[in-house]
Amino acid sequence: MHLKNARTGFKSNHLFLTHACTYNNIRTHVDTSNAHFSYHASIHHPIKRAKQHSKSPLITTKHPIFMLVNTSAIVLHSFKYKENQMIVDMLTEQLGRISFIVRVGKKGSAATKRQFFQPLTLLELAFDYRENVGLQKLNDIKIAHPFNSIFFDPFKCSIALFVAEFLYHATKSEAQTALLHNYIEAGLLWLDSCTGSFANFHLVFMIKLTRFIGFYPNTDGFKEGCIFNLRTGCFENYSPIHTDYLTPTDSIAMYQLLRSNYNTMHLFEMSHEQRNRCTDIILNYYKLHLPTFAELKSLQVLKDIMR
């Protein structure tokens, strides 16, 4: 028998009720297969019925709310969990940082899915997002933009591995931000298509990323001979009482990087030592503003290969 509840307008057969709504490509479902419904014999007595409803909820469900999400994502880190499972950390366009547990295999079609989880792979995902669940499960996955050169060029690959580890630590506290995701995606696509000089890519990429996570340097006070205060993110005329600031020479290099972009960074010529120095400065800047930012294991590999 179907009953129509006066408050919600939903029909129920006492066995299953699904409520769905759509918002920004996210569909929200409440599965109340085992829900408890409150129906009263006094259906013809509205006053008495209203009092009864005020004392007990209409529906009490044991199932969590979940959202069907379709989003772009960037793989940051993955590792083997069990023989046929991996845990993968991704930065999604709609929900920010999400961790997934995925099933993979050694044979058949499942084997190809391992390739989906290489660092910085650009994906399209569909999954049921459950709030307060640490590891989400994928419904569907496909590669959004296959790379043509990043995984095959040793220099680009070393930069990509460094950038992936850097992003894994730099974006840990980032929630939903499409602008951050789109900036990273655009940078990776530029690197993949680049046929010219890209030795300074990681420097420009890292310093420009600060715009999206809250501590982009202020260049208004720059002039020759000034220093860059790493704590305040400002160019200043006088040295502060602490030691977290750059010399005038390093401050000029920081200013030039801030004015550069991917298409003009080749004009900023650096020696191997100067490039490594700038890398250390930017990473130190992140450590001052992100207390949980860790030492990067891939840093030395990048320094060795980009000679």
Describe, in plain words, how this protein is organized in 3D.
With 307 residues, the protein is α+β, with helices and mostly antiparallel strands. The radius of gyration is 26 Å and the shape is globular. It starts with a strand and ends with a helix.
Give the SSE map:
Elements: E1 3-4, E2 11-12, E3 18-23, E4 26-31, E5 36-37, H1 46-55, E6 59-60, E7 66-82, E8 85-92, E9 96-103, H2 109-112, E10 122-130, E11 138-143, H3 154-170, H4 178-193, H5 201-213, E12 227-229, E13 234-236, H6 248-259, H7 272-289, H8 299-305
Antiparallel strand pairs: 1-2, 3-4, 4-7, 5-6, 7-8, 7-10, 8-9, 10-11, 12-13
Helix pairs in contact: 3-8, 4-5, 5-7
Q: How would you describe this structure in keywords?
A:
single chain, 307 residues, alpha+beta, seven-stranded antiparallel sheet, two-stranded antiparallel sheet, 8 helices, 13 strands, globular, disordered N terminus
Total number of helices? 8
* Order of helical and strand elements: EEEEEHEEEEHEEHHHEEHHH
| Uncertain stretches | 1-62
Query: What form results from the Cα inertia axes?
Result: globular
Estimated radius of gyration? 26 Å
Concise overview:
This protein has 307 residues and is an alpha+beta fold. The chain has eight helices and 13 strands. Strand 1 (3-4) and strand 2 (11-12) form a beta hairpin.
